[in-house]
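Summary for the steering committee. One of the milestones for this cycle was to obtain a three-dimensional model of the protein with pyridoxal-5'-phosphate bound, which we needed before selecting residues for the alanine scan. The sequence and ligand used are listed below.
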Amino acid sequence: MTDRATELRAQGRDIISLSVGEPDFDTPFHVVAAMKAALDSGQTRYTPVGGTAAMKRAAALHFERDLGIAIDVAQVTVSAGGKQAIFHALLATLDPGDEVVIPAPWWVSYPEIVRFAGGTVVPLPTRPETGFHFSAADLAAVVTPRTRWLLLNSPGNPTGAVFTAEDICAVAAVMEAHPELLVMSDDIYAPLTYTGAPHATLAALRPDLADRVLTVSGVSKSHAMTGLRIGVATGPEWLIRAMERLQSHSSGNPCSISQAGAVAAFEGPQDFLADWRERFRQRRDLVVSRINAIPGLSTPVPQGAFYCFVDASPLIGGMLADDGALALHLLEHGVAVVAASAFGGGHCGLAGFRISFAASEDQLNAAIDRIEKAVSAL
Ligand SMILES: Cc1ncc(COP(=O)(O)O)c(C=O)c1O
């Protein structure tokens, strides 16, 4: 949808894009300065495949300070974005027919990566009424002896759902009953939560299970560095080494200049984050109140990340066959969003769309005016 919106804009159409998954803030100045210095000092050569020693130390600092996971640098690897870490972990461990449980709605790339790696996707449907959370019983009902991985994502894309310590306990209980089960915890949005509660993540809350947990994080979302492609992961050493072996034969080391930027991101000042969080929170509140005032649309209040997952089920049928048609209808009215079906919304009986509120308040207000008009035209 982002590409289609760009195309339409190039044709002179006025399109507001709320489809893209990146902060609209500038990359912090100290990060940019560190990358310029790295370039000037000739850091343009290969680095160790899984990242420089400085990069791994900075990632270890991030895991301990921001996520509460104390680890040795040997348990860290660095890749070209969080996506590549997930890709390599699944590629390294899945055999044909292995099952991977993914709570739905899910991030679009999870099922694609699982299928590419030969695995079978097992959806775990969740609903807005429960804040898109699931219980130990819900999870136990879909785990089988063939389940290799459970993929967790908190704060979640596309729902903004944030796990509590209780949710993590529920997962741990199921892990105890299934010793073969590995869990991936994708915490890439961790610094962007609006609950005020400390971030809850499995490897920190249950260090006794940490040798079965891969935690993925990065700088893309928290430091507005999406284009620089740095992701970090920590887990058992056997898995980290397997991921690095794959990386050594695919892309090789992550970009040397971006690594210098990511070191500055993790080691430098973090105080700008409080300001970003507050601005995102205000935008979230604006979008939630305005969307919920439109007949036929509803969204729960996201607790983290910068997305609202809007249920538009009452509008589907008649003129609109599905939520893909709804997204196109909204595009005709000048707003680009992503249909809920792209996130496995259908597994949860949901049809609608995701709005990214990483846009200015003026843009958000203008976009929602257009959405309101588009809905009343149905
Ligand atoms: C849930 C989730 N995980 C991982 C990623 C990947 O981030 P990166 O850009 O660092 O590869 C994204 C990006 O959209 C995401 O939403």
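Key point for the committee: The pocket of pyridoxal-5'-phosphate is lined by residues 21, 81-83, 107, 153, 157, 186, 188, 218, 220, 226, 231 (CB under 6 Å).
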